[in-house]
Amino acid sequence: MKGRISIAITLFALAIAVAVAQSTRIELRAKMRDGAAEYSSKYKQRDTRGRVRGELEVEIQNGAPNTEYVFLIQGIAPIVLETDAAGMAANEAHLRAGALPPIVAGTAIAVADPEGNVLASSTFQPR
């Protein structure tokens, strides 16, 4: 009986180890400033058994009221935000693999106006 319990516990521990090994999580952040305006971005990625899902959150604080801002990742504009009357805006996008260039530590991010003039830039860094 003791042998069976020991084998069952060992198999359970092995199953947990395999599940953990097959799941990878990444969280990266970038913060930027342009005068009083503050821009932030957070990227989370989860890879479970080869199925990659990403989540990109962007936020503007103290921006110009009722103004469009473009967030550029490696030069690609995945998100355009318009601030409210208080100069605030936020958005969260759930992305599938391939929707963006790969985001890793050091990936460039910038905020631009609708004409493409870069207002601030930074790179994603581990949390």
Q: What do these coordinates show?
A:
This protein has 127 residues and is α+β, with helices and mostly antiparallel strands. It has one domain: Sandwich (Immunoglobulin-like). Helices cover 16% and strands 54% of the residues. It has one helix at 2-21; strands at residues 23-34, 37-48, 51-61, 68-73, 76-82, 89-96, 108-112, 118-123, 125-126. The longest helix is centred in the first third of the chain and has 20 residues, at 2-21. The termini are far apart.
| Major β-sheet profile | 5 strands, antiparallel
Structural class: alpha+beta
The shape, in one word, is: elongated
Low-confidence stretches: 10-20
Strand content: over 45%
Distance between the termini: 47 Å
Named at the architecture level, the CATH assignment is Sandwich
| Number of strand elements | 9
Mean pLDDT level: 83
Would you spell out the secondary-structure blueprint of this structure?
Elements: H1 2-21, E1 23-34, E2 37-48, E3 51-61, E4 68-73, E5 76-82, E6 89-96, E7 108-112, E8 118-123, E9 125-126
Antiparallel strand pairs: 1-2, 1-9, 2-3, 3-6, 4-5, 4-7, 7-8
Give a quick summary of the entry.
By secondary structure, the protein is of the alpha+beta class. It has one domain: Immunoglobulin-like (Sandwich), CATH 2.60.40. It contains one helix and nine strands; from the N terminus they run αβββββββββ.
